[in-house]
Each structure stands twice: as structure tokens, then as C-alpha cells.
Amino acid sequence: PDEDLMATAAQLTVLSIVNAAKEWIEPKVSIDEWIVSGGGAHNPVLLKGLAQHLEPARVLLSEEYGLPVDAKEAIAFAVLANEMMNHNPANLPSVTGAERETILGTLSFP
User: Fold this and answer.
1) Residue 46 and residue 107: Cα distance in Å, rounded?
2) Are residues 6 and 60 in the same domain?
């Protein structure tokens, strides 16, 4: 049934995040709080799973710091636009596999 598919997808998402955090982040840095934003912040199953698997660290919504959870994409694009306007590369070749740093985007006029 659809409910089983959704539950499986939510659990897969939780475990993917938790496994990445434990493999790549926690060995290097001590984390007291994980801050969730974006669409996943509206998913109580996702939030509960993260809280269970990431304790003793707290799982909080970005709204607790004055940043609406739905503002993530708008803020990300504003940051990228700012970097482009200031001629700053905004990619991470070590993460993306790109050959070099580059300025992302362009400003076009009609």
C-alpha cells in the first residue's frame, strides 16, 4: 500500500541522513544541535526519526532561530546570486567533481 511506501521512504531518508552524519560529520565535530529546514521540516515522521537516531543532540527547526523553514530555497538562491554578482566562485569541486571553481549563474537583460 501507499502508506508502506511512504513509511519506507521516510525511514530511508532518516537513515541516509543519520549514516552520513555519523560517517562524515560526527567524527570531526561534536554536534549539540541539528537544525532542520526545508520541506522535511513539515514531516513529523522524519523529525521523530532524526531525533531518535541523533540523540543526545537536539533536532530543532530553523524557525527557533528566526528562519522560516520554507525560506531555505529562497535564501540559498539569494546567496548564490550574491556570490555571482561579486564574482565569487560558489561551487565546491571537491564535492561536485567539477574540474575547477567557477562562478555560478549569469545576469541577463532583455
Assistant:
1) 38
2) yes
